Amino acid sequence: MSKNKKMSLSGGDTTEKFIYKPKDLIWAKMKGFTPWPGMIVEPPLDLLTQQRRANTKCVFFFGSRNFAWIEENNIKPFEGPWKEELAKVSKPAAFRHAMADIDKYIDDPAEVDDQINESCGVPNHATEADFDKIRDAVDSDENAVDADADANNGVVVHVVGSPDVSEAVEGENNADSSASPTVTAATPATAKSPAKRTPKAKPVSAVSATKAAKASTTKSAQKRRISAHQTPTGANTSGLPNAKRGKRVVSGGATPGNFDGASSSSPTARRRVEVDDLLASLAAKRAPNAIALLDRPVVTRPETQAIDMNSRSNTLADRDIVPSELTFGFLGLGMMGSTIVKDLIYTGHKVVVWNRTIDKCQPFVEAGAEVKDTPMDVVEAADIIFCCVSDPKGAKDLVFGNCGVLQLKDLRNKAYVEMSTVDPDTSLDIGEGIKQCNGRYLEAQIHGSRQEAADGMLIILAGGDRTVFEECHSCFKTIAKNTFFLGTDVGNACKVNLILQTIQAVSLVGLAEALALADRFSISLNDIIDIFDLTSMKSPLLLAKGKEMAKGDFNPQQPLSHMQRDLRLVLNMAENLDQSMPVTSITNEVFKHTKRLGYSEHDSSAVFVRSRF
């Protein structure tokens, strides 16, 4: 447990702040309860599906030995000056039992740790490799169900209730026997059991269809109704009291001759025994798979890489760059913006910066940049202002929002350069707003990854005011290997950039699906990539992304969420033109699904994860 300024505790000394990690002993306060001894743990499977507030921890409570999400401001370390007050023995017996339980844990943690591990599924944590085995096992189980159903002449199995339900209604079995595990089977109309509670046979019309129709019905019904978590009555249920089984449940020790009143030679009895065996085998096979599928691998967010102000690109060092005498403002110090600003400072440009998170500005201040409090302040201090943010909405907010660029009503002798990836309509709106305030506007779309920005190997696609383009020449030479001016019409550069992004995204999804297929064949992905490198199809981008997929290294060079944003903008443009783009639409859905799996902030090559499943 370490002290940190970002997490606070309620009550007591508000200057003390803590970070909690698993196995930390704590006091936790739930609404309506006194502070209770507990421990920080990894959440069990059932808690993972529950909605919870931000800044909460999963707490295991001693005594009751259950779990709950608790906000961090309702948690205190177990050891501290408050312990004596919180541990007073005048509290209820349940609290004293909890105190004895935590003391027992401190002396011997093995029992509690085993219970927590069993609840949280720690020993059986699924990896991505396990998913392939699980998927194959489920497919083979379904094939086995189909084969066994055909062997049983199309008998449809119904499993009603579960062991948990049976225990919950133990005292009500005499009133309603349907709450206990029950097995019924569709039987011919001529086979009837003398037992009072034997299920009624289905009508002859329900089973008089053709053989093919019966097999089809059996398959679909079995897949819907058989649950991996229900205990069939033919399985070993000797550990359950007879009162929990109900009158219609076959006892674990019952013989076929005493099966629900039917004789051993009865076709109904023999069929039910076969059904019991089938259900027992299914429960044994599929229960672990169902549990493992719930235990999805935890997707950790990629670590934010701090900007290294001391590193220098060899490519950039070899360039002969004469810095402009103008002052350049820069709005946005994200993944691309921070790298660009670092290179501008390194080549001797005078830079004024602003960022929503002021902490990100500190390394640039130390390197010689000037920081301002608002975008409007940057506009006042600079001659040319660059903007590089994550989406069109953010770009428009910086221009039209409170304390934005246009709060300075006269932009005479000022120029605004939009480097954010935006759609043509957004670029036109921003350009129109700048021009109405007597400013000049240039859209300069950047095409490339974070590493290409660090190496000064981006591609600049510009359009708009030609004089601004020429005044930014030294900046563009610093960060790009090639620069294109696509005319004075605003919007052309945005269109070209989004078209290039479409080609890249579709290619990535094709590469991911091809490597996923190779992985299913157990073919080495590295071998595939080496062979691909020798073909005419090779490209530096696909080779680099293929190697990342093979290693499972999705450190963001171009975040997946940014790529999906570009696809959305492309599809919106196509919709306005009634242009059909079915492949791009499917590619967009693949990226959206990968985002939902938790890979939004990873590299775009993480689409490989989705393709594998």
From TrEMBL:
Xref: InterPro entries: 6-PGluconate_DH-like_C_sf, 6PGD_dom2, 6PGDH_NADP-bd, GLYR1_PWWP, HIBADH-like_NADP-bd, HIBADH-related_NP60_sf, NAD(P)-bd_dom_sf, PWWP_dom
Chief localization class?
nucleus
Extract one GO BP annotation from the record.
transcription elongation-coupled chromatin remodeling
Q: Can you supply one Gene Ontology CC term for this chain's record?
A: chromatin
Q: Where is the composition biased (Polar residues)?
A: 228-240
Q: Where is this region: Disordered?
A: 168-270
Q: Which subcellular locations apply to this protein?
A: Chromosome
SUPFAM superfamilies per UniProt: 6-phosphogluconate dehydrogenase C-terminal domain-like, NAD(P)-binding Rossmann-fold domains, Tudor/PWWP/MBT
Share what the entry says about its subunit structure, partners included.
Binds to mononucleosomes. Interacts with male-specific lethal (MSL) histone acetyltransferase complex at least composed of mof, msl-1, msl-2 and msl-3.
What family is reported?
A: Belongs to the HIBADH-related family. NP60 subfamily.
Q: What is this protein called?
A: Cytokine-like nuclear factor N-PAC
